[in-house]
Structures are given as C-alpha cells and as structure tokens.
Amino acid sequence: MAERNIVEAIRDGLAFEMERDPRVLVLGLDVGRLGGVFRATEGLLERFGPDRVVDMPLAEGAIVGSSVGLALSGLVPVAEIQFLGFTHQAFQQIGPQLARYRARSYGRFGCQVTIRAPSGGGVRTPEFHPDSIEAQFVQTPGIKVACPATPADARGLLLSAIRDPDPVLFVEPQRLYRQGREEVPEGDVVVPFGRLRVARPGTDVTLVAWSAAVELCLRAAERLAGEGISAEVLDLRTLVPLDVEGLTAAVARTGRAVVVQEAPLSAGFGAEVAATLQEECFFSLDAPVARVAAWDVPYPAASLEGWYLPTVRRVVGAARRTVSV
Amino acid sequence: MRRLLQPDGSLVEGGCSRLGPEQLVEALRWMLLSRLVDARATALQRQGRFGTHSPVKGQEASVVGSAMALDPAVDWIAPSYRELPALVRHGYPLERILGRSMGRSPAATRIPDGVNVLPNQVALATQLQHAVGLAWGLRLQGRPGVVMAYFGEGAASEGDSHEAMNLAGVRRAPVVFLLMNNQWAISTSREVQSAGQFFRRAEGYGFAGVQVDGNDLLAVFEAATDAVARARAGEGPTLIECVTYRLSFHNTTDNPRRYLPPGWLERAECEDPIPRLEAHLAWLGLWDQGARAALEAEVAEEVEAAVQAALAMPPSRPEDLFDQVYALPPERVRRQRQELLQHVQEP
Ligand SMILES: Cc1ncc(C[n+]2csc(CCOP(=O)(O)OP(=O)(O)O)c2C)c(N)n1
Ligand SMILES: [Mg+2]
C-alpha cells in the first residue's frame, strides 16, 4: 500500500499493466516527454520506450481510429484524449466504430481499447476542457463507461478497464486529480465494473453520484449531518455497466434519492438513474427522485462556472426537500 | 522558404519591400503592443486576475504581417487563440479582449457589431471549416470579402484541417489558410505532426502553397497580400506556412523546460522578429533610441489604458449563463434561469 492521489494512482496503474502485459501501449497528445498535460504518463516513456508510449499527431480521430486498428492487430491500446471535450473530434471513431466493432463482426473482431480522458469543472479551464459529456457515450452501446472518484478506484478500475475485452471510456475527475491522497494497493488489485461503492453510509436519504460529484455529495452529507439528516452517498463507479441491484437496494433502504451530476440536466445520466429507480423500486420510494445538475446551457467561461455547477447548497436544499416529503 | 529581410535588417539581394515607412512603424507598433500584452496578461494571470493566456511572443511578424494585408471593412478573420494583435488591428478593441479573459461581462466584451472577427477558437482546426463556409457564402452573394483563417502546425493534423482545405479548393473559396508553424504543439514537436512539408499540401488540394520566413514581416506581408489579391480576384485559396518560433510557453499552464531540447530557446530567440524589424528601420535610417523609446511609451500607455478599461467593465452576472444560449429559449430553460436567480439571492 502507498499513499497516492488520483494522478499518481493512474500513473501507477498504467505502469503496472504495461509491465504485466507487453501488448499494452499508451498513445495520445504530449504523453511522452511531457508525461501528459496532467503528468499521468510521466516516466513511462523512459521506462517503456517510444514504441509503447507514443506521442501522436494532433488528431483525436487518429488516436481512437488507429487504436481500433492496433487492437485488431492484437495490441492493447490505452489512448489518452487530452480532455473529454475533445472526444468530439473522435466521436465518429468512438460511437459508430470502436463501440460497434464487435457487434458488426458478430464477435469476429473485438476492440480491447481504453480511452482515458480528464473531465469535469471547477478548475477554471478554457472552453471545452470542463464539459461532462459522459452520458453521450452511454448512448453508444458496446463501450463501457467508468468514472472513478478516488485514488484506489482510479487504479483498480483502470486495471479492469485495460483488461476488459470490451472498449472502455475511462473518465478522470480533473478537479480531484491532486486533491487528497489515500492508501492505494500496489499489486494486482482490481476494482470490478458494475459494483457501486457506498462512499458514506446513511439512513435518511441517498445521494447518488459519480466522478467528482461524489466529493461534492460527501461535503453535502457532512452539512446535512449537522442538520440531523443522515445522508448516504453512493458512488456508481461505472455508468456502463450500471449496478442496478446495488442502486435499488440502497435507495429502497432510505426511500429517498437525490441524483447529482455535473452535466446539464436534460437527458443526463441522472435521468437514467431516476427512471431506473422508479421502474425498479417505485413502491419503496417515499418521495420523488430529485436531480441536481448543471443548467441546460453550454459550460460557461471560468468566471461563471460557480453559478453553473451544482453546489453543496443546492444538493443540501434538494435533500432537505426530499426528506420533508 | 521566402525571405526578404536579413537578420541584420538589410534586404536580401534583389528584395523589395511593399511596406512604406509609416506602415513599417505601424507594424512595429502592433508587434510591441502584442509583446507587452503578453507580459501584462501573464503577470495578471499569475495574480489570479486573468484566465489562461497563450502568448504570441515570437510570432508577431507572422500575425501582424498577415493581418495588415486585410481590409477590416470587408475582410474577415477566423482566429485560433494566438493572434491578438491581428484582432485588435481588425477592430476588436483591446480592452474587450482583455476584459473577456478577466471575467468581465460578456455583453461588454463581445465582438462589436460590424467587426469582422469570429470568436476565439479553442477546438483546434474547427474554425477552418467555418472560414471556408464564410468565404464561400460571401462569394455566392457577390460580396467582396476574403477570410484569413489562422491555425497551428499541430491543428493542421486534425481531420477538419484536411476537410476544410479540400473543400476550399473545390469551391475556390476566397480564403487564406495561415498555418503558423511555430514548431510546437504544447510539447509535441513539428516532426511528430507530419513527415512532409506543410505548405506542399496545397498542391494536392489544387491551390497555391507558399512557405515564408515567419519572423520576416516583409515576407509575410508580401505572401499575404498576394494571397488576398488572388482570393479577391476569384482565383481561390492559398496556404501560407509561416515558419516561426514559439518563444514563450504554450500557455500559462505550461512549463516548456520539461520538454524543450537544451539550447533550442536560445537559438530561436536569435530569430526574434522584433529586433529584426527594428534593425530594418535603422538600416533605412528611420530608427534610433529616441524613436523606440517614444513608441514604447505610447504602446505602454495604450495597454495600461486598456487594462484599466477592462477592470472598469461590469462583472459577469449569473443570468449571463443563460441569456445568449438560444435566440428563442425553451420554457424549461427560462424556468432554470429564474431558479438560479432565486438561488443566488437566498442566503
Ligand atoms: C481538438 C483539440 N484537441 C486538443 C486540444 C488541446 N490543445 C490546445 S492547444 C494544443 C496545441 C496546438 O498546437 P498548434 O496547433 O501547433 O498551435 P499553437 O498552440 O502552437 O499555436 C492542444 C493539443 C484542443 N484545444 N483542441
Ligand atoms: Mg504550433
């Protein structure tokens, strides 16, 4: 065990997999000498050489499209897209290609590809850098979507992602990259997909989140505790696969749920969670499932992001209203 | 590579300048202003009063020389994010550009009506497609403008870059593709982007491609005026590769010491376009210490006035999140706006 923040845990996970499996290679923008703009690949070039840590031409379509081909050749690419907002430039290679390759060939060709990308707001980044567009990839079946929120999960889910025979979009919470360390296992310890984590136990209301919003919910739960409301915080960890049993069992225990997302409200993954809850545990619900999200507007300039993103105050308000029903 | 101006400020054999004394001083003025804004913006950013800044430092001759070939009344600029003096010359007031990065009201900092400048573009190479459509549309309507589209040698690897240039050739759109080859895309060197030469791509698209010394104001201006003239005459697009050097960090989040080879910056600094243009003015007998000091003082005053004007602008408001997202906002979005305004008023 070692104390690590999220970037260090990812770096460690990458190195562990590259050591373990010679087919694994890392490719992306500035991943070599610079070690990535967040230093997640720092030291890998020196350790594994330029054939396994590849600085790519500035073309996200080429990064993902060639990853499909590299996987077809028998390698295991781990592609870095500099920011999730720039997966748009590769979308024609992700949704319609990477995600569907297995289905299109009826299992003849699979793509064991991981796409890592930092995402999320609150760190005053330029346009397109903070957008939380993970739900778009839930609408392109064939690819899995992982959204870790802690260092141990970042490493453990990354090992699962790289080993998964299916393609995985691995969304990293940039706001939390260096925010706090925790004990992270160093060996072959995976965190399986499709099993949510109880980030904080509670009995009155369930706050459901993923990625950096988990940290927000923990702060809200702390505040609620001060008011005598015991909030449980669930970290979904993976959106695809979604832990439907874990989710419904947890919400059935409190009978009340607030889903919190950094993405705009309409058709975000929170809507999927709310719909699933009313389908699966309607009769255990004591209040309508509430959502706290960003507004239905484009991610704004840095000076406005404090008004755009969900806040502790908004989460607390929604939880209070839910509990008072 | 086309070059007119020698490092010592003299013209190459048989070279001739298309810029008269006044225009040369005007160009130097924009270049000095740009350099000063870089320093001021970086300092403000370090104090937490300015957003991410991408300096123009080292590329001023390419940016200013190309922009000076345009007529702001009819021509358009489709910028990337490293062309500040071109935008100011084209009519986008400096205080608005600065105010935008300082979190001032978007209404107070937006591109003024009638100024033919598209918004800064962060999504690399996307603006090239818009530039082609804009140029094509102007031509379809018999309007006179030419579009100057700026992009880096890194952005030139994006699919949008190929698609845009290909279409521009097919439609003979009046557009100039100004490829700023500053050798770096963050930490990625030019060799990683392409095994070929950038300007040669134009041939494959069926239009003219030229490579110029991007630290040579005269050569850039010559190439740009020729390209604009061709576009205006209906002879289609041109790709201009300006070979230049990024003399600063990629932006204020970057630390180039991590990746620049030893000695690279020192060698590149010898090509600084500002001393070269000053040497030319001196060679022409138009320049001395006094003239420089006067120009510097004038520019410093202008930059300071713009910073103060930006600071005096109203700040952003919560409703700015909503107010220009739709021309006709859906009811649900209107309600969200109300909800936010209520929320910010609650204790
Ligand atoms: C589509 C897209 N991908 C990645 C980025 C992140 N990024 C911002 S600037 C940059 C390098 C651009 O290099 P170049 O085009 O040469 O322009 P320069 O910065 O040198 O002016 C990168 C990778 C981005 N802004 N847009
Ligand atoms: Mg460049």
How does the SSE layout of this entry go?
The complex is a heterodimer of chains A (about 325) and B (about 350).
Chain A: E1 2-4, H1 6-20, E2 24-28, H2 44-48, E3 53-55, H3 60-72, E4 76-80, H4 91-94, H5 101-104, E5 114-119, H6 134-138, E6 144-146, H7 151-163, E7 168-173, E8 182-184, E9 197-200, E10 205-209, H8 213-226, E11 231-235, E12 238-240, H9 244-254, E13 257-264, H10 269-281, E14 290-294, H11 305-308, H12 312-323
Parallel strand pairs in A: 2-3, 2-4, 4-5, 5-7, 6-7, 10-11, 10-13, 13-14
Antiparallel strand pairs in A: 1-8, 6-12, 9-11
Helix pairs in contact in A: 1-7, 8-12, 9-10
Chain B: H1 21-46, H2 60-67, E1 76-78, H3 84-90, H4 94-101, H5 106-109, H6 126-140, E2 147-152, H7 159-171, E3 175-181, E4 184-185, E5 188-189, H8 190-193, H9 201-205, E6 208-213, H10 217-232, E7 238-243, H11 264-269, H12 273-283, H13 289-312, H14 331-345
Parallel strand pairs in B: 1-2, 2-3, 3-7, 6-7
Antiparallel strand pairs in B: 4-5
